[in-house]
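Example record

One chain of 418 residues, shown exactly as stored in the release files.
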Amino acid sequence: MGCSSCSTGKDGQPRGCKNNGTCGTDGCNKLTVFDWLSNMSLPSGQKPFDCVEVRFKNSRKEFFRNTENLSLSIGDVVATQAQSGHDIGMVTLVGELVKVQMKRKKVDFKDEALPKVYRKASQGDIDKWQKCRDREEEIKKRAREIAIILKLQMKISDVEFQGDGSKATFFYTAEERVDFRQLIKDMAKAFGIRIEMRQIGYRQEAQRLGGIGSCGRELCCSTWLTDFRSVSTSAARYQQLSLNPQKLAGQCGKLKCCLNYELDMYLEALKDFPSQDTKLFTEKGLAFCQKTDIFKEMLWFSYKDDPSNWHVLSKDQVIEILQKNKKKEKVASLEEYTVDNFVKEEKVFENVVGQDSLTRFDRPKKSRNRKRNRNKQKASANSGNGSADSKVQNNQKTQSGQRNKKRRNNNKRRQNNG
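Predicted structure tokens for this chain:
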């Protein structure tokens, strides 16, 4: 995870800010809003909007009123009003777009009871805030151990410290109602801080923790999705998806939110499309629908007596047969309609320039045994000629040696006789 100005390091944190998603450019934060009005000046005489959007840990965002008229910009760390004490957050949006966001989230920007921005955070405030954030993982682990000892059926998923370190909010998920009064006492005694318990749903848990989905991208709920609409299994049925809970469920264990993205398009396409339970009456027999393809507008039918043999029909052909069946007329057979649906495939690519075929590597390789055999024969022939020449030379040497011996013997005999 990294923004445009911070390259990602080995540990997954942005190399520029070292804050793991809380850099000053606000490019790698969750639920970031692009300020497309930043380069536009206000009309003469109009005052800038006095509310700002501040982001805290993970996806928690709140709106605050800038009563002190501080010159704030995106990325500034500010101290804000809390129920008791103050909190530390980062400014994520300023200007007129804040008013649009407040209307979208149904927050009255004219309400005087909105919390206020106290000041820009000092270095001491930031150091204290960072120390509290460093303690969160250790405290979360210890809180889970206490909950296990008390045998509470709950899962503590996240801990968020207030900026001044006086309070910690524990977010948990549970199937049923949990009596955590003893848990609060034990944690307040162990940590020495005020404890607040807040129950969240499984989708909200995935939004806070984040992760990578089956599509390979970051979860929609933790990056841009803000409203959680209910997702039913009928959405998968309309899109002709297999009702496999392992494939349709996300990391939260619920049905994926992306099942609703294209649902409206499918519902619109299915308005004038024959249903899956369509039956066609023919003289050859009764035909049932086996498969539909909404994009190609095709349907596959098979006879009751021959379910393995499918016949493809277009949407218009099925509607035509249904209209005849309403008039109590039967068509001869489905084969009369399927003949017109077979289209010859045309060649899209022709090798007019002499380019290599894309399947040239799929052809079997030519055997090189012939060349090897020829090379062996040549080598054996050459070796055979060399051996014959060496034999001739050896014979000549032996004959010359024998002649020399005879001459020597004759010379010795002559000397003895003389």
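Notes: Residues 279-341 form one domain.
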